[in-house]
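This section describes the prediction task in plain terms. A model, or a person checking by hand, is given the sequence of a single protein chain and must write out its three-dimensional structure as a string of tokens. No templates, partner chains or ligands are provided. The sample shown here is typical of the held-out split.
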Amino acid sequence: MAREITVNLKISTLKGDLNHTENPGTLFVDLAGTTAVGGAATVTTTAAALAMGSVSSAGYAYFKNTGPTNFVEIGTGTSPFVPFLKLKAGEAAICRLSTSAPTARANTASVALQYYILAD
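The expected answer:
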């Protein structure tokens, strides 16, 4: 099969002189893998690996910081931790991962992180 993943994208900005919209619309992406992993993780201020279950080669991923106050970073490694994504309280993101071993770290206190990662 093909086009098993559907991603809807749009971002608009309106503040002061900023007035811009990007709307590439709906993307249809092939899913080569047949597994996924996800759930909720309590992310602490020490970088730690996200559980990957049976996903050995990560592809598209969804992350949501469900905490009310602190931000969380998604990245690679633990020492050093190299963040590539930052989510403030309540924010979410969809991306294709370039690592099969994502890690996460909260900034000042533990954060509840929802995630869903598809095998590539």
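For orientation: Residues 37 and 52 are 6 Å apart (CA to CA).
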